[in-house]
Amino acid sequence: MSSLIDVAAAADLADGAMTAVTVDGKDLLLARVGDDYFAADARCPHMGGHLARGSLEGTIVICPRHGSRFDLRDGRVDRWTDFSGAVLSVAKVLRSPRILQTYPVHIQDGRLLVDIEPTE
To answer: Is the pLDDT of residue 98 over 90?
Structure first.
């Protein structure tokens, strides 16, 4: 079942930009890459960093806290952390990699509508 929520005007988000919004008590990250719009949980599933404060490289959002990288197209982990060696191994044991929850975005009458039912 679809739960479309109007979150912003499409024109308000510039190409390559990200912003955080709260709708129905849910914190979301909105991002635009070219003509594509993406929505995901606003917090990194690694250490809870505010993803909107991070950076965007194409469809990859980079957490400002530990450099975790996620693809906004499907939430897959591109890199769990910017740690290396033994520290990376320990970090993966303590907090195993998890995908970033993403949500479908639709554009209707110039508005961004997010389906807040999680994608599988």
So the answer is: no
What are the sequence ranges of the domains in the chain?
4-114
What is the tens place of the pLDDT at every residue in 50-83?
999 999 999 999 999 888 999 999 999 998 776 6
H-assigned helices in the chain: 85-94
Please state, in angstroms and rounded to a whole number, the distance separating the CA atoms of residues 117 and 95.
25
Pairwise CA distance, residues 4 & 70, whole Å: 23
Q: Which residues are CB-contacts of 47 (< 8 A; sequence separation ≥ 6)?
A: 63, 65, 66, 68, 95
- In degrees rounded to 5, what are phi and psi of residue 15? -55, 130
Rounded to whole angstroms, the Cα distance separating 21 from 51 reads: 12
- The answer to whether 52 and 74 are in contact (CB under 8 A) is no
Domain at 4-114: CATH architecture = 3-layer Sandwich (2.102)
Give residue-wise pLDDT tens across range 7-40. 999 999 999 999 999 988 889 999 999 999 999 9
